[in-house]
Amino acid sequence: MQSLRYDERILSIDIGGSRIKATILDPDGKMLMDYQKIATPITPDPGNVIQAILELTQNFQEYHRVSVGFPGYTRQGIIHTAPNLGTPKWSGVNLTKLLSDVLNKPVRVLNDADMQGMGVIRGEGLEMVITLGTGFGTALFLEGNLLPHLEIAHHPVSKDRTYDQYIGDKALDEAGLEKWNRRLKKVIGILKTVFNYDSLYIGGGNSKKISFEIENNITIVSNIDGIKGGAKVWQREMYYAV
User: Fold this and answer.
1) Tens of pLDDT, residues 5-44
2) What is Dmax (Cα atoms) for the chain?
3) Which domains, ranges and CATH numbers included, belong to the chain?
4) Of the ranges 144-148, 186-190, 222-226, which one carries the lowest mean pLDDT score?
5) What is the CB neighbour count within 10 angstroms for residue 185?
6) Residue 97: phi, psi to the nearest 5?
7) Beta pairing class for 65-70 and 10-15
8) I need a labelling partner for 121 at 20 to 30 A (CA). Which of 84, 223, 229, 232 fits?
9) What pTM, to 2 d.p., does this model score?
10) Considering only CA atoms, which of 160, 158, 162, 174 is closest in space to residue 137?
11) What pLDDT does residue 111 have?
12) At what angle do helices 95-103 and 46-57 cross, to 10 degrees?
C-alpha cells in the first residue's frame, strides 16, 4: 500500500453515458465539495469528453491527483471497450496519458464499477458490486482486493439479449418498471448461483427503483457512497496489475 499525504486532494471523475460527474476528495475519500455534473457530449468521442471534463472542472479548488471511472473495459489506463460511448472511437485510447497531459497531474483510470466498489466494500470475503444505469456494470473483490474485470454486461442472459439489453436504461423504458424489477430479480438469482458472493452491493441511478425485497447480504448504495473509491485507487500498489 502507498499512503497519500494528509494534505493531498484527489479530483474524482465519473464518466457516464448520460452525465459526467466530478468532485474533490481528501485522502480518506471525504467529499470536499458538492458533486458537479455536466451532460455527456452528444458525440462522446475522446476529444469531446476531455473538453467536457475541462469545462466541468475549470473552477474546482486545487487538487494533486486524478481518479477516473470509465464505463468500459480498461487495462493500465488504456480503453478497450466503451459500449455506451462508442467502442470504435475509444478502443486503444490511452486516457490516462491524454488526461495527464491536459490536467498536468498524475491520473489513474479504471472501470467505473471497479472504482465505485472500492468505495463501498467492507473487505471481507467475496464481494460483488453491480451498477444499474445506462448499462450494467460489475466488479468483484476478494478480501478487499480487486479481481480482474469481467464485462458481464455483454454476456447473453437470454437467447438474444445481453445483460445491458435486458436491464439497462433502454430496457427499463421499454419494459416498464414492474417487468424490469422481475428481470433484475432474475439476474440477481443468476449472479448468486454463478458467483456465490458473500455480499452484493447495488449502485447506479436505477438502484432506487428496486421494488422487491432484497436479501440480508445485499446492500443498495448511492453514488455518494462509492465516490470515496476515487481515493482508494491511490492506495493500491497492485492497481496496474488488473
Assistant:
1) 778 999 999 998 889 999 999 998 999 999 899 999 999 9
2) 53
3) 10-111 (3.30.420.40), 116-224 (3.30.420.40)
4) 222-226
5) 14
6) -65, -45
7) parallel
8) 84
9) 0.90
10) 162
11) 94
12) 40
